[in-house]
Structures are given as structure tokens and as C-alpha cells.
Amino acid sequence: MKVSIIGTGYVGLTTGVCLGYLGHKVTCIDSDQKKIGMLQSGKTPIYEPFLTELMAAAQHNLQFCTDYAGAVKDADVVFIAVGTPPSPDGSPDLNICARPRKALDSTTTAIFWWW
């Protein structure tokens, strides 16, 4: 399966690496070019036990980029795994989801949202 994951934090990166390890073709997308550069060189910007080793083993199934539209157009499934910082009242601020959502709106025919 071709999987695209938007966001390379704890949730997105670990999900992408594990799916790649299981044999899926995974593209991880992030707007932070520095983070993408680290990932492309085989380094992880977060600590998770054995993540570096799993990433090395799954390397042939993993891609990392900053291009939303190009990365999601051929995906069978797209995960949005971006942070949702709290609003002043403590509820999640979902505005950060707007950029990936707009990219998906212009490249996909069906989008299902749930939280």
C-alpha cells in the first residue's frame, strides 16, 4: 500500500517507520526542511526506543519530503499527524490542520475526517 503521512513528530514518524518496516511504501511529509534533511540522512529528530534501527531496516520503503501535493497524489491512504496545541481555553487549536487539509482538498477526490 502507498501511504503518505503529513507530520514527522512522535505520532507521524513512528507510524511511518513502522508501516515502512511492515512493507508499505511510505512518504512522510513535513514543512520543516531541516527535519526532512535529518530524516533523509538517516537521523531521527525525536527519541523513541529502536526507532533509528527500524528506520534503517525500512529505508527502502521510506521517503521524506516537503511537497504536500506531490506526495499525496498517488497515495492509497493519507494520515494527518500534526500537532494540535491548546487554545487559551484548553481546547485543541485545529487551525494547524488547515495547510495539509488544503493540500489534500486539491489532490484527492474523497476525504474523510474524524477526530
Key attributes of the depicted protein:
115 residues; alpha/beta; four-stranded parallel β-sheet; globular; single chain
Précis, in short:
By secondary structure, the protein is of the alpha/beta class.
Largest sheet: 4 strands, parallel
Net shape: globular
CATH topology: Rossmann fold
Top-tier CATH class: Alpha Beta
Distance between the termini: 23 Å
The unreliable regions are: 109-115
- Please compute the radius of gyration using only Cα atoms: 14 Å
Roughly how much helix do the residues carry, as a percent range?
A: 25-40%
Report strand order across the widest sheet: 3-2-1-4
Count of domain modules: 1
**Topology pattern, helix = H, strand = E:** EHEHHEHEH
Looking at the overall shape, the CATH architecture is: 3-Layer(aba) Sandwich
Report the β-strand fraction as a percent range: 15-25%
Characterize the structure shown.
This protein is an alpha/beta fold. The chain has a single domain (2-105), classed as NAD(P)-binding Rossmann-like Domain (Rossmann fold, 3-Layer(aba) Sandwich), CATH 3.40.50. 35% of the residues lie in helices and 16% in strands. It is built from five helices and four strands. It has helices spanning 10-21, 33-40, 51-57, 68-72, 98-105, and strands spanning 2-6, 25-29, 62-65, 77-80. Strands 3-2-1-4 form a four-stranded parallel beta sheet. Helix 1 links the parallel strand 1 (2-6) and strand 2. The radius of gyration is 14 Å and the shape is globular.
